[in-house]
Each structure stands twice: as structure tokens, then as C-alpha cells.
């Protein structure tokens, strides 16, 4: 009785309006975030069925999932697990930038200053690093973690790579939880201090949320709700939830035609 199914938390309505793409990284608030919906596993079944017949995995193009969420929302943690379990290549935009810094290049000097201030690195630098990493990985399923950070990033990616993502997984973590996690992350990062964290949170709200709104309006966003993102004592379940966000698509890629092959629901205590 104290348990309920939650697969449907991740299912969103189909696109209801056209894009509101901005041409540059502007500061603004947004109202098109995906809605929470009541349980409806039949909708999941329909979604799966509608995907199963399409060109699942046979095309030359890799399947692309953008993984977004505020700083400290758990993107990297979840991507590592998804990559292991589902055979995705995990490309972290932040790690690619930090790698460039570590290489001692001139570009790296510019990047480190921007990261210290919590600002966004010019699109052409990041997109080029991602494009090269995608090419080098030669993977047919790619998680792009922490990118695009703003509308300008998104537009540059779509122009240069010539693709939209297939889906966008969004970790909607409460701000206080993100701050707590970042302050405890202990990876010696130049940006995990309270001053920079405040700036990063502002940049996330004003520049990254519009990207999520945009993809939401195109029906691509699978949101992991605040409730589950903040459930730190249920880290494994949070992982299961990100599986659910991806499962219909992974099943499509694997060419599986039966729902019984998918992890389509999990049970959690009502209390969290
Ligand atoms: N569900 C969770 N509960 C508690 N701590 C978490 C959870 N997910 C991630 N963390 C921790 O929070 C910090 C930030 O996680 P990370 O995956 O690096 O987030 P992001 O990539 O979104 O910034 C890390 O120290 C990580 O171990
Ligand atoms: O596409 C990107 C990804 C990251 N960053 C910069 O790199 C920092 C760290 O990004 P990362 O994704 O590693 O941080 P996280 O959100 O995982 O804490 C960000 O604050 C930005 O300054 C950026 O400019 N563009
Ligand atoms: Mg990260």
C-alpha cells in the first residue's frame, strides 16, 4: 500500500507549441517546463510501441541524449551508471574543457578564467571538443553531459554537428540540495566554492532553463522530478529513474520489441 509505480513521472506530453529559440545567450525566465503527470503506464507502452518500429539503431547516426540539470544535480553520477549499464559513450562537456585546461594550451587559459567565474565557454570551443570526442568514440549511443548550457550552445551544436538530440534527460534537483552536494564534492575544482556556485546557479536559471524549455516544446525532455533528485538516501532509485527516462529509447536501439525487456517501472515508498 505504501508503494506506488512511478514510470509515468518521466513521461511528458507531446509537443504543444513551436520553438521559442533565442539567437543568443540572453537572461530570461521561462514557463514551459515539462509537467508532472499521474501514473499512466499505458502511455509508456504507447510511446515504446511508437518508437519500436522506427529506424532503431540501424542508422549511421549515433543516438544522442543531452543530459542537463543544475550544477550538482547528479548528471555526472547518473551518466557514469547509464553508460555502464546501457553501453553509452559518456561525454562530459565540463571534463572535456578541464582536459583542455590540463593540456596547457592557450585555449585552456581562457577556459579556466571563464570556469572560475561560472560563465559559459564560447560555443565554438565546446562544440568542437564534443564533435571530436564523438568522432573518436565512434559510439552509436552517446550521452552528452552538461551541454548545451545556453541557446547559443544549442544552436551552434545543431549547426556544426547537423543534429538535434534524440532526447534530453533533465535532472530537476532542488537548489539547496545542489549547493550542499557541490560544497561536499571535494574534487579540488576551481568552481566548487560558494561564490562561484551562486553565479553558476544564476547562469543555470537564466541560460540553461531556456534550452530545456525549447526541447520541452519539441517533446524531447524526460524530466527526473525534484522529489527524486533530492532523495539522496535513494541514490540507486534515482539511477533507476534515469533508466526509465532512457529505457524506451534504449530498447528501440537494441531492437527489442517487447515491453518485458524493458525496466519500465519501479516501486518506491510513498514517503519520499
Ligand atoms: N543522488 C545523490 N545523492 C547524494 N549525493 C549525490 C547524488 N548524486 C550525486 N551526488 C553527489 O553530488 C555531487 C555532485 O554530483 P555530480 O554527479 O558531480 O553532479 P553534476 O555533474 O550534475 O554537477 C557528487 O559529489 C556526487 O557524489
Ligand atoms: O558546455 C559547457 C559545459 C561546461 N562549461 C563550463 O564548465 C563549468 C563546469 O561544468 P560541468 O558540467 O563540469 O559542471 P557541473 O554542472 O557538472 O557541476 C561550467 O560551470 C561552465 O563554466 C561550459 O562553459 N560549457
Ligand atoms: Mg558534472
UniProtKB/TrEMBL annotation:
Disordered: annotated span: 12-36
Compositionally biased intervals (Low complexity): 13-24
SUPFAM superfamilies registered for this protein in UniProt: P-loop containing nucleoside triphosphate hydrolases (SSF52540)
Phylogenetic lineage: Eukaryota, Viridiplantae, Streptophyta, Embryophyta, Tracheophyta
Family: Belongs to the adenylate kinase family.
InterPro entries on file: Adenylat/UMP-CMP_kin (IPR000850), Adenylat_kinase_CS (IPR033690), P-loop_NTPase (IPR027417), UMP_CMP_kinase (IPR006266)
Substrates-to-products reaction catalysed: UMP + ATP = UDP + ADP
EC numbers on record: 2.7.4.3
Pfam families, A to Z: ADK
One example GO MF annotation: ATP binding
Designated name of the protein: adenylate kinase
Entry's Gene Ontology BP terms: 'de novo' pyrimidine nucleobase biosynthetic process; pyrimidine nucleotide biosynthetic process
Broadest EC class assigned to this enzyme: transferase
UniProt KW keywords: ATP-binding, Cytoplasm, Kinase, Nucleotide-binding, Nucleus, Pyrimidine biosynthesis, Transferase
